[in-house]
Design a protein that fits this description.
Elements lengths: L20 H8 L3 E5 L2 E4 L1 H19 L4 E2 L5 E3 H7 L4 H6 L1 E4 L5 E4 L4 H11 L8 E10 L14 E11 L2 H21 L5 E5 L2 E7 L5 E6 L5 E3 L5 E2 L12 E4 L6 H8 L7 E8 L3 E8 L6 H8 L4 E3 L2 H5 L26 E5 L8 E4 L5 E6 L9 E3 L9 E2 L7 E16 L1 H6 L2 E3 L5 E3 L1 E8 H11 L1 E2 L2 E2 L10 E5 L4 H16 L4 E4 L5 H11 L3 E5 L1 H5 L2 E6 L5 E5 L3 H11 L1
Parallel strand pairs: 3-7, 16-18, 18-21, 29-30, 29-31
Antiparallel strand pairs: 1-2, 4-6, 5-6, 7-8, 8-26, 9-10, 10-23, 11-12, 11-23, 13-22, 14-20, 15-16, 15-17, 19-20, 23-26, 24-25, 27-28, 31-32, 32-33
Helix pairs in contact: 1-11, 2-6
Bound molecules: zinc ion (ZN).
C-alpha cells in the first residue's frame, strides 16, 4: 500500500473529547473514524489490525476442532420469549425493531438462544457430541453514553465460541480448553490480562483507570473477582453473651444511622432490612448487618436467577413488615420445613458475625434489642450477599486487603449448563436411549476492546508501537530526497518486498522528512526502512525498529532478503 493512496488520513491532533490514549491514537493514526452517535467506521489501516486479530483467534479455535458458523444479527423476538429470558430488565437492554410484516425483531445482544435453537435441530444423539462452534460478528448493546472510542461501542465485534457437551464433566474439560486458547490469543497479541472470577465463570481484565468494570484484587493471595460478586470476610460484629429480646422506643428513627445514634451503638450492631420484588411476583426480604450494603448480583445468584426491583411501601406492608422499622423477627418465614407459605428471607452471612443486634420491631417507632440469629428469626437462605468495599479483608485468604480497580474486560468464559437447552428443546439421546439436555459453554473475545487494550499497552509519545503479530504492515519504506532516483529505488524495493510476501507500506510522498517520520511513528509498523542519499552513499539503506531509537545499516546488496529476514525475526 502506498501512503498517498491510503483511504483515511493521519491527524496531528485528536479531538478534545477523546479521553483514552487508545482512542486518541486510533483516530490520529487513521484506524477508525467517528460517524456520530457513538458509531465508528474501521478504515483500511485499522481493519487490517482487526483482521489479523481475527486470524489469530481462528487459528487457536481450529486447534480445538472449532467449526465456524454465522448466525443472523436480526433475530425474531419469539426466540427470546420462548427461552424465558424475555424479561422487563432484558427487554430494555435489547434494541427492538418492528418490521413491515408486523413481527418484532431484536438486534442480538446475545446469541445463546439462537445457538440452542440450532442445537435442537442438529444434535440428535450422544454421537453428535461434543462440538465446538464459533462465529465472529457484530453484536449490539444499549449504552447510555458511548465513551472511550473502541471500549464502549454500541455495535462491536465478538469472537464467540459455544461448546456443546453431554455431561458437566465434558463441559468442564471444554471450558478449560477454550480458556487456555483465549490465554494463547492474548499472549500472541501482546496482552497479559488478569483472569477474574465473574458471574457464571471468568473474565479477562486489563487494568485501566478509565475501564468500565470494577474489579477487586487481593494484595496477598492473588484472588481477583468482579466487584459485584467478590467475597470479603465480614469484620467482627458485636460480641458478648446473648441477651433477652427487649422492645425499645425509637421515635423518628427511620434510618440505620438514626437508630444507631439514638441508641448510642455502632451501625455494625444493627440489622438492616432491604426489600426487593423478584420477577414481579415474589417479595424478597433481605437482612444484612447495618454497616454493609447489598450486592444485587450476589442476591440474584443466591435466589437462583431472575430480575429484581425495589419494593414499594405497600408491598412491604403486605407481608406484615413496617417500612423503616422492619425485621424478620416474628414474621412467618418461608423455610425448607415450611415451603408453602411465608415470606422469602435472605440473610447475609454477617448476621452470624455478632450478637445482640438492634433490629426493627415491625411497629412504627419501636426497635428490638438483643436480636440473635438463629434464636430470634429464621431465614429461607443464608448467603454472602454483601457488596465489597475497598480495603475489605479478602474472603479467600482472610489476611490480604481487597482493592477495587477499574478494568477493561476483553474476554469471558461462562458455563451455561443445560437450563437454556431444556427450555428450547436442545436434547440428545444418551447411550441408554434417554433424552438429556445438551450442556453449553459460552466463550467470547471483544475484538475492538482487545485492539484498544493492545494500543494502551503498546505505544509511546509518538504513536503506536504494534506487536509484530497484529501490525497493519510489517515494514514501512520511507523515501527521502529531491532526486527522483531515491524514490524510484524505494518503489523498486517496495515491489520486491511485496513479491516476497511482506505487508509493506510505502511512503514516497513529496513531504518533509519530519512529516514522514512522524507519520511512520504514529502508524507504528515494527520496522522502518529509509531510502536516502546519505545511506545510499554508504551503499546501504537505513533500518530502525519502532521500539528502539537505534538506527542501523542494511547493505544494499541483498537488502530485500535481509529485510524479509528481519521482519520475520522480531
Ligand atoms: Zn487474599
Amino acid at each position: 500500500m502506498r501512503f498517498q493512496e491510503l483511504f483515511g488520513r493521519t491527524l496531528r491532533e485528536a479531538p478534545a473529547d477523546a479521553e483514552l490514549t487508545s482512542h486518541r491514537l486510533a483516530l490520529r493514526a487513521g484506524l477508525i473514524r467517528p460517524l456520530g452517535g457513538g458509531a465508528y467506521a474501521w478504515l483500511p489501516l485499522g481493519l487490517r489490525v482487526l483482521r489479523r486479530v481475527e486470524a489469530i483467534v481462528r487459528a487457536e479455535l481450529a486447534g480445538l476442532n472449532g467449526q465456524e458458523i454465522l448466525l443472523p444479527g436480526l433475530l425474531p423476538a419469539e426466540l427470546l420469549q420462548e427461552s424465558g429470558r424475555w424479561q422487563p430488565g432484558l427487554n430494555e437492554a435489547l434494541l427492538k425493531c418492528q418490521n413491515r410484516d408486523g413481527r418484532h425483531y431484536v438486534l442480538a445482544a446475545d446469541f445463546q438462544e439462537a445457538l440452542a435453537a440450532m442445537a435442537a435441530h442438529e444434535i440428535e444423539s450422544y454421537r453428535d457430541l461434543p462440538r465446538l462452534v464459533y462465529q465472529i460478528r457484530s453484536q449490539y448493546q444499549d449504552v447510555a453514553r458511548s465513551r472511550g472510542g473502541l471500549i464502549g461501542l454500541r455495535e462491536f465485534t465478538v469472537a464467540e465460541a459455544y461448546s456443546l457437551e453431554r455431561t458437566p464433566a465434558e463441559l468442564d474439560a471444554a471450558y478449560d480448553d477454550v480458556l487456555a486458547a483465549w490465554q494463547r490469543v492474548f499472549a500472541r497479541v501482546g496482552l497479559h490480562p488478569l483472569l477474574v472470577e465473574a458471574p457464571g465463570g471468568h473474565e479477562f481484565a486489563v487494568f485501566h483507570p478509565q475501564g468500565e468494570e470494577a474489579v477487586v484484587r487481593c494484595d496477598r493471595c492473588g484472588y481477583a473477582a468482579r466487584l459485584e460478586i467478590a467475597q470479603a470476610r465480614p469484620s467482627a460484629g458485636p460480641s458478648g453473651t446473648p441477651e433477652a429480646l427487649a422492645k425499645v422506643a425509637t421515635p423518628d428513627c427511620k434510618t440505620i444511622e438514626d437508630v444507631a445514634r439514638y441508641l448510642g451503638v455502632e451501625t455494625r450492631q444493627t440489622l438492616k432490612a432491604v426489600f426487593f420484588v423478584r420477577d414481579e411476583t415474589e417479595l424478597v426480604f433481605v437482612v444484612i448487618r447495618g454497616d454493609l450494603e447489598v450486592s444485587e448480583t450476589k442476591l440474584i445468584q443466591a435466589l437462583g436467577g431472575g430480575t429484581l426491583r425495589a419494593a414499594s411501601e405497600a408491598e412491604i406492608r403486605a407481608v406484615g413488615a413496617e417500612p423503616g422499622y422492619a425485621s424478620p423477627v416474628g414474621l412467618s418465614v418461608r423455610t425448607v420445613d415450611q415451603p408453602g407459605g411465608g415470606v422469602t428471607v435472605v440473610a447475609d452471612e454477617s448476621v452470624r458475625a455478632g450478637v445482640n443486634f438492634v433490629a426493627g420491631a415491625n411497629d412504627a417507632g419501636f426497635h428490638l434489642t438483643g436480636v440473635n440469629y438463629p434464636r430470634d428469626f429464621a431465614a429461607t437462605t443464608l448467603a454472602d450477599i454483601a457488596a465489597v468495599a475497598d480495603g475489605a479483608t479478602c474472603g479467600r485468604c482472610g489476611a490480604g486487603a481487597l482493592h477495587v480497580e477499574q478494568a477493561i474486560v476483553v474476554g469471558y468464559c461462562r458455563r451455561s449448563g443445560g437450563r437454556l437447552s431444556e427450555r428450547l428443546g436442545a436434547q440428545f439421546l444418551d447411550e441408554g436411549g434417554k433424552a438429556q439436555p445438551v450442556m453449553m459453554g459460552c466463550y467470547g473475545l471483544m475484538l475492538e476492546r482487545l485492539v484498544a487494550a493492545i494500543i494502551e499497552a503498546h505505544h509511546d509519545a509518538a504513536g503506536i508501537v504494534w506487536p509484530r503479530s497484529v501490525a497493519p504492515f510489517a515494514v514501512e519504506v520511507v523515501t527521502l530526497g529531491k532526486e527522483p532516483l531515491y524514490h524510484e529505488q524505494g518503489r523498486a524495493l517496495y515491489a520486491e518486498l511485496k513479491r516476497a510476501g511482506l505487508e509493506v507500506l510505502l511512503d514516497d510522498r513529496d513531504e518533509r522528512p519530519g512529516v514522514k517520520f512522524a507519520d511512520a511513528d504514529l502508524v507504528g509498523a515494527p520496522l522502518r526502512v529509509t531510502v536516502s542519499q546519505r545511506a545510499l552513499e554508504r551503499n546501504a539503506l537505513e533500518g530502525k525498529w519502532r521500539h528502539s531509537e537505534e538506527r542501523f545499516d542494511i547493505p544494499l546488496a541483498g537488502a530485500a532478503a535481509a529485510i524479509v529476514r528481519l521482519a520475520g525475526e522480531e
